[in-house]
Amino acid sequence: QKEVEQNSGPLSVPEGAIASLNCTYSDRGSQSFFWYRQYSGKSPELIMFIYSNGDKEDGRFTAQLNKASQYVSLLIRDSQPSDSATYLCAVTLDSSYKLIFGSGTRLLVRP
Amino acid sequence: KAGVTQTPRYLIKTRGQQVTLSCSPISGHRSVSWYQQTPGQGLQFLFEYFSETQRNKGNFPGRFSGRQFSNSRSEMNVSTLELGDSALYLCASSLQGDPDGYTFGSGTRLTVV
């Protein structure tokens, strides 16, 4: 079992819809949770990070963390074609600065 | 301010050769982390350097090594290249190593033939 699991997609949503991206992790010691966006041929860029159970909102993005169920999700409201990219979930274990990435979910926003 | 600079951008090497990749962090950043990205394995942590010391290491063979200089610039070296080492190698710099402060470089695309 991989430490961080994501559905590879593609997840296809129409423009203006809410895109929901999910990620599960296996190690209960995971402490910090990150969502990165990676456009084809580019490097990852950080969208959000979350440390505590609950929701964290930043503009059109909301990260949700449920440590009991060991999942973290990313909601993208009012999805735009420019949001089409691969979304990578990553976690850190204990106090290590090492990021463990999922394989990513490809999001396609249809105009 | 200048971003994270990785050189070279592209590299083609032959099996058995060795290669050195360079990463210049953002000014003031003391931590450099290296990741390998392949279609099959995704992004995997290689190692992290902070103030010239390797602080964390991933599960890669000893052929993969790195170092950091006093100006925080970092290099990684892969010896005895294998076809499976073909990948995008990314470095990320941050002030203290915390991923919420990461800035990734554009990467070095290594192809081993």
Give keywords.
heterodimer, A: 111 residues, mainly beta, six-stranded mixed sheet, five-stranded antiparallel sheet, 11 strands, B: mainly beta, four-stranded antiparallel sheet, 0% helix, globular
In brief:
Chain A is mainly beta and 111 residues long.
Write the layout of secondary structure elements.
The complex is a heterodimer of chains A (111) and B (113).
Chain A: E1 4-6, E2 11-14, E3 19-25, E4 30-38, E5 45-50, E6 54-58, E7 61-66, E8 71-76, E9 85-93, E10 99-101, E11 105-110
Parallel strand pairs in A: 2-11
Antiparallel strand pairs in A: 1-3, 3-8, 4-5, 4-9, 6-7, 7-8, 9-10, 9-11
Chain B: E1 5-7, E2 10-13, E3 19-24, E4 31-38, E5 42-50, E6 53-57, E7 64-68, E8 74-78, E9 87-94, E10 103-104, E11 108-112
Parallel strand pairs in B: 2-11
Antiparallel strand pairs in B: 1-3, 3-8, 4-5, 4-9, 5-6, 7-8, 9-10, 9-11
Largest sheet of chain A: 6 strands, mixed
Mean pLDDT of chain B: 95
Number of helices of chain B: 0
Structural class computed from helices and strand pairing of chain B: mainly beta
Shape of chain B: globular
Characterize the overall form of chain A. Answer: globular
Order of helices and strands of chain B: EEEEEEEEEEE
Q: Radius of gyration of chain A, rounded?
A: 13 Å
Q: Largest interface, counted with CB-CB under 8 A?
A: A-B, 20 and 21 residues
Number of strands of chain B: 11
Cα-to-Cα separation, first versus last residue of chain B: 37 Å
Question: What is the number of beta strands of chain A?
Answer: 11
Please give the alpha-carbon distance between the first and last residues of chain A: 36 Å
Assembly of the depicted chains: heterodimer
Q: How many DSSP helices of chain A?
A: 0
Using only C-alpha atoms, the radius of gyration of chain B works out to 13 Å
